[in-house]
Amino acid sequence: MTDDQKQRLTANIHRVADVIAFMTNIGCVLIGAIMTIVVIAGVVARYVMQNPMVWTEEIARMAMIWTAYLGMSIAVRRRGHLGVLYFVQKLPVVLQRVVKLFTDSLILIFLYILIVNGVKMVIAAQIQIEPATGIIMSYPFLIVPLSGVLMMIQHGLVMLVDILRWGTPTSPFEPAA
Predict the structure, then answer these.
(1) Those residues with Cβ within 8 angstroms of residue 94's Cβ, 6 or more apart along the chain or in another chain
(2) Are 62 and 143 in contact (CB under 8 A)?
(3) What is the tens place of the pLDDT at every residue in 60-74?
(4) Long-range contacts of range 101-109, CB-CB < 8 Å, 24 or more positions apart?
(5) Which key words tag this protein in UniProt (predicted)?
(6) How far apart are CA 58 and CA 131, in angstroms?
């Protein structure tokens, strides 16, 4: 593969990852706005009208969980996850790349396990119902496998870009030499 082909492929991968991140951002903003409105409505109903709406706590909790899980996908796209680089950066560049590929592969394995167990959790939660809203708990739990898929896609795309850029000095993800 020529350098020009690698650059075009890398640009296309970034476009796909950016579209996924943009849509995820929109989801986070919308769900965050819903959470804010529901919490404000709950506070006003409880303290101003002296007539609490019990369903607001359940909806706000679900919205916060969904926002957090969607936010993890955005963090994966930006490589915002926690990493300890001190010792890795002391290694030769070739070993740094091997360690990075190994740890990235471990992350993909973890995400696969998250997706599989998330699906099991969604299936198991079909019999559980939220008391105030009557929502089947499968719906709130659906974010676990969904975010796992989003994170796996984003992480896979970031890994692919890393592999395509190995050996180039312009790589933003290249470990320090």
Answers:
(1) none
(2) no
(3) 999 999 999 999 999
(4) 101/159, 101/162, 101/163, 104/155, 104/158, 104/159, 104/162, 107/81, 107/155, 108/152, 108/155, 108/156, 108/159
(5) Cell inner membrane, Cell membrane, Membrane, Transmembrane, Transmembrane helix, Transport
(6) 9
Contact between 58 and 38 under an 8 Å Cβ cutoff? The reply is no
Percent helix, percent strand, percent coil in the chain, to nearest 5: 75, 0, 25
User: In angstroms, rounded to a whole number, what is the distance separating the alpha carbons of residues 177 and 171?
Assistant: 12
Written as six digits, the tokens of 162 are 């890393």
Backbone φ and ψ for 66, nearest 5 degrees, come out as: -65, -40
For residue 167, the model assigns a pLDDT of 65
- Please count the residues of the chain: 177
- C-alpha distance from residue 39 to each of 35, 44, 46, 47 (Å): 6, 9, 10, 12
* Band of pLDDT at residue 137, cut at 50, 70 and 90: very high
How many CA atoms lie within 13 Å of 46's alpha carbon, on the beta-carbon side?
A: 11
Burial class (CB in 10 A: 0-12, 13-18, 19+), 41: middle
- Measured over the CA atoms of residue 106, residue 112, residue 118 and residue 121, the dihedral's sign is negative
pTM over 0.90: no
Phi, psi of 59 (to 5 degrees): -65, -45
